[in-house]
Amino acid sequence: MPTEAPAETPRTIPELAGNWTLDPARSTVRFRTKALWVASVNGAFQVTDGSGTVDASGRVSGRLTIDAGSIDTKNKRRDEHLRDDDFLGIGTYPQIIFDLTAAELSSPGTGTIDGDLTIRDVCRPLRLLATMQTEDERVLVLDAQAEINRSDWSISWAKMGAGLKNSVTIRATFIRQR
User: Fold this and answer.
1) What is the CA 23 to chain-centroid distance, rounded?
2) Rounded-to-integer distance, Cα 160 and Cα 19, Å
C-alpha cells in the first residue's frame, strides 16, 4: 500500500452519499507475482474509467475499468506475451472490469469491499481488504488489496515455475460530483 495518506478519514459511509467519478491520473492497479521459484514480477495497469455511488443508507455500487493492454512490467518482450492469448488476450478482451457490489468499512475507514472481477469474460466474486480516506469533502481515496489465483480467470499458462497466485493492489481516487 502506498505510504502517503490523505488528511481526513470518513467516519461513516453515509457521509459520502452522492455520485463519484474516478480520477484516472491518480489511480493505478499494481500486481506482484512470484516467478521462477524465487524472483517476483511487478507490474501495473492503467485504470481508464470508473464511477461509484453511495446512497443515503450507505449502500455502495461502482465500476472500475482497466485497460488490459496497458500492462507494464518494465520488460517489453514479457509485456507483449502477457497481452497475447496465453494471458490477457487483449485483441478479444481489451478491458478488465471490477464491479463493486458492497462495502463494509468502519472507523477509521478500514474493512472490506466486495465485487465481481471480470477478466477474459470470466466473472468471479472478489473480496478486497480496503482503506478509505478523504482528502476533503470532494476527494475520496480507496486503497484495496487481494490475493488472486489467475487460473480462476482461465489464465493458467506458466513456464519454469511461474506462479499462478498474484497480489493485487488498487489505488482509486474519486471526485464527488455536484
Assistant:
1) 14
2) 46
Cross-strand partners of 46: 28, 67
pLDDT tens digits for 88-115? Answer: 999 999 999 999 999 888 766 889 999 9
Domains, the chain, ordered by start? 13-176 (2.40.128.110)
Residues whose CB is less than 8 angstroms from the CB of residue 157 and which lie 6 or more positions away in sequence, other chains included? 86, 87
The pLDDT of residue 38 is above 70: no
pLDDT score recorded for residue 37: 59
* Contacting residues for 122 by C-beta, under 8 A, at least 6 apart: 152, 153, 154
Share of the chain above pLDDT 70, in %: 85
- Model pTM? 0.85
pLDDT digits (tens, 9 = 90+) for 149-167: 888 888 876 654 455 788 9
With 0-12 / 13-18 / 19 or more C-beta atoms within 10 angstroms meaning exposed / middle / buried, residue 134 is buried
CA distance 65 to 172: 11
Cα 111 to Cα 9, 34, 94, 97, 104: the distances in Å are: 13, 26, 30, 21, 6
- Which set of grid coordinates corresponds to residue 10? 470518513
Residue 152 DSSP SS3: helix
Interatomic CA distance for residues 47 and 57, integer angstroms: 28
